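Troubleshooting: if your tokenizer reports a length mismatch, compare your output against this known-good record of 319 residues.
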Amino acid sequence: MRHKREITSLADGRRGFALLATAVSLFVLIGMAGVSLDLGFLSILRNEAQSRADGAALAAATGLDGSASGLDAAREGVRRRLAEWKTPEGARKEIGVAFSADGVSWQAAPGRAAGVRYVQVTVELRDIGLNFMPAVAPSQRGRVEARAVAAREPVTAIDALGGAMLPYALPETAVAAGGAVTLLAGAGGGCPGASGPPGQYIQEATPRAVADAIESSVAVRAIKPGRPVIPGDGLRDEQAESLTRRARRDTNESASTYAEYLQQPGNGQRLGAVATVGGGGVVTGFATVFLPVRQAAAGAPLCAEVASAPPPGVARLVR
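Known-good structure output:
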């Protein structure tokens, strides 16, 4: 009888230990799952921070033109881009912008703006609220950081680099005349006030290619000085829609002329580099045009204005 009680007591002890071990294991597993959720949340925020930093750096690099106002415009472009980011409640967002002529030595406020080609954007989120990690370390708060470097390179060719380019070629005489220019003639001829001959669309003419070339500056055909251009006829309405979408991405939609735009520069979406051609349709160089916010209805010409600025540089992420 005594042995039976001992066996029962031993079995009860083992069951109690098993229950305790199970409870501890469940607690550990739940804690690990919770920490994993927090780490996953931080990973998502880190990826978003990197994406935001990349976009801000590209926008800033496009505006670098060797002037002090270009540096100010770059800083303002970064501020506007990152102001749109809705960060977690309670998190502190810290933004750093630095410039460089060689991509090695960085200054937040360069003494000379001439020659500055690189911009570095640093984004840091501090005091990110977490749900499970504070149970392990009560003072634990989340933190993520992202850094992006972009450079502005001069336009020497329209190719697959991307940037602030438009897939059009304009006669040198039209660019030299200044004022209004016709990117593509309509059924009734050129644009009002345009004194020079019309230009031509010079990329592949499929709906996807038109959207890529105009809205994202993704070229299919490389356009370089000394080479003849190959027109891509057709899809006038698709071109008009893409030009309008691109122009409406600019932060200054109110300016009706380039002179007005200079009073309050936007993010550069309404500016684009186009090829200039001479005799025989051979590319001679590049010029800058300013886009209206909206292109006219079907059948009308596609219009722009010659800008006095040098061709917008090609903005590329360096790292």
